[in-house]
Amino acid sequence: MKVIKKAVIPAAGLGVRFLPATKAQPKEMLPIVDKPAIQYIVEEVIESGIEEILIITGRNKQAIEDHFDKSLELEVRLKETGKTPLLELVQSISRLAHVCFVRQKEPLGLGHAVHCARRFVGDEPFAVLLGDDIVVGEKPCLKQLTDMYNEVQSSVIAVMEVPEKDVSKYGILDSVVERPGLYRVRDLVEKPAPEKAPSRLAIMGRYIIEPRIFSILAEAGPGAGGEIQLTDALKVLCAEQPVYGMTFQGKRYDVGDKLGYLQATVEFALARPDLSDGFRSYLKNICKELS
Q1: Other CB atoms closer than 10 Å to residue 51's CB: what's the count?
Q2: Domain count, the chain
């Protein structure tokens, strides 16, 4: 039985929705409270039992590599000043997993970024996680997907139902129900107009994909937005072999959107024992002032 051993995290986007903050820093390094968004993604991979991770970066993304590397000067300083808890925190980041990096030399789309992982992945199924989606739940979203992959032994995409007005923001499934929560994909449509959408089942930022996708991507031309779209390659794949959509358990935050980013920051802070009491009191006072 094939098992998932490797995960790919595309992080080469320009982050234009967060300009000017992302002019000189990667959007993936924007913090949710005090932890960069991409670290949540890496931790989800590890909690799902996968230890080999490839992050696809681009220009001006060196900070991501630095974050997961050792910081000798900082560690020495923390040790000299007796800040042991902070020292242990910093050291734990570089020990999280075996993280490799490949640079996408041109911003040619998500499909092109995934294709940059072909040598790392080889001829085996692999996970893809997008950094704009953070999912919180009892079981990691990726672990739910890998468990389903172990059952069906075929590509699995995380999906959720979205309001009709939002379907134009996502890749949308044309599918048939296999069983509650599992759909056999017939086709995919990238960011359709609401009146043309085949459903309201939207692709979220988690995938388990068979390696055949690489040869499809190698032959793919530009799609929506003039970029090589992963959704277009998945359209071809689902015509050749089974591809499934799976609804997942957990709350998803779109931290690539300003409102979603703010929501995640507030709710993650409220879930922190060291912050919740004071922050909750502050929010209550703000609400009183606004009412």
Answers
A1: 14
A2: 1
One-letter identity of residue 90: V
What is the CATH number for 16?
3.90.550.10
Residues 229 and 170 sit within 8 Å (Cβ to Cβ): no
Task: Name which of 30-44, 60-74, 219-233, 272-286 the model is least confident about.
Answer: 219-233
User: Which residues touch 76 (CB under 8 Å, ≥6 apart)?
Assistant: none
Residues in CB range of 138: below 8 A, 6 or more apart: 249, 250
- Which pLDDT band holds residue 20 (cuts at 50, 70, 90)? very high
pLDDT for position 223: 65
Q: 48-92 pLDDT, tens per residue?
A: 999 899 999 988 899 999 999 999 899 999 999 999 999 999 999
Whether the per-residue pLDDT at 183 is higher than 80: the answer is: yes
Integer Cα distance of 116 and 290 in angstroms: 49
For 227-252, the three-class secondary structure string (H helix, E strand, C coil) is CCCHHHHHHHHHHHCCEEEEECCCEE
Q: Residue 31 falls within a domain, yes or no?
A: yes
Domain enclosing residue 218, as ranges: 6-256
